[in-house]
Amino acid sequence: MFSDKIISVYSQAIDISFKGMTALFLFMFIFFILIIAVDKFFPHREEKK
To answer: What is the pLDDT of residues 22-48, one digit of tens each?
Structure first.
């Protein structure tokens, strides 16, 4: 039904999409950990009025 060329291109597209989504979620996880670390090292202080 599909030629070898179409299957090859589709396989490459799935591979690139998987790598891109993995990189995106990895970046989001690292950014989340960074936000938590900054919050731990520099806690919020209430200002006196």
So the answer is: 999 999 999 999 999 999 999 888 888
Q: Is 47 helix (H, G, I), strand (E, B) or coil?
A: coil
Q: Is the dihedral of CA 29, 35, 40, 41 positive or negative?
A: positive
Task: Report the distance separating Cα 36 and Cα 31, nearest Å.
Answer: 9
How many Å apart are CA 17 and CA 22, to the nearest integer? Answer: 8
Q: Rounded to whole angstroms, how far apart are CA atoms 43 and 15?
A: 42
What type of residue is 15?
D
Q: What are phi and psi of 3, to 5 degrees?
A: -80, 165
Domain ranges of the chain: 1-41
